[in-house]
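Q: Mind making up any chain with structure tokens?
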Amino acid sequence: MLQISNLDVFYGESHILRNVDLSVPDGQMVCLIGRNGVGKTTLLKTIVGLLKHRSGKIALNETIINSKSPDQRAKMGIGYVPQGREIIPRLTVKENLLLGLEARKKPAKNQEIPEEILTLFPVLKTMLSRMGGDLSGGQQQQLAIARALMGQPQLLLLDEPTEGIQPSIILEIEAAIRRIVATTGISVLLVEQHLHFVRQADYYYAMQKGGIVASGSTSELSQEVIQRFLAV
């Protein structure tokens, strides 16, 4: 699915990502952990094309996408839910969702919300006519994920989807993401600090100072790694 090799990214002359190697297999969830400021968000923005890398390779389904623009990468199957959600507050929930259709490789035949998306996030079904800005933080996060799914991605990038959200909603989002992976075959690359959510992933990578310093199955995620790389 996704293969990153020897990736280097700079902000000006500041070396942010250093020789990053990372892969996300088909139909699996991979979690990227690390304390604040180590480069996790930079990596996601580079994958989606919002930041340029200086060297290295990004491949999606064995196709090199280094030179592709963000909209081209979206149409190739990369969905992105940024930190902070970035829903449009003065559009309704339905209008926000329909914006996700723009990421599809082929134009949508109709302007309807698929029932399977509303099943994943049932709270949205009752709020289609409400303004996005009137939703709670947890509801906005569900809307942002649903909007990304409207583009029919093969790979979904999620940047700290549980940040600032109450525990009950975190569990709902966790369950929805696991169902997405299990039922659709979509691969997920997740940046997350919430330990319970981290353990839902199949595999983890730990970042420090812009590089990958540990990786492995989340079933073998040790307390030592948690203490070293997860923010408290």
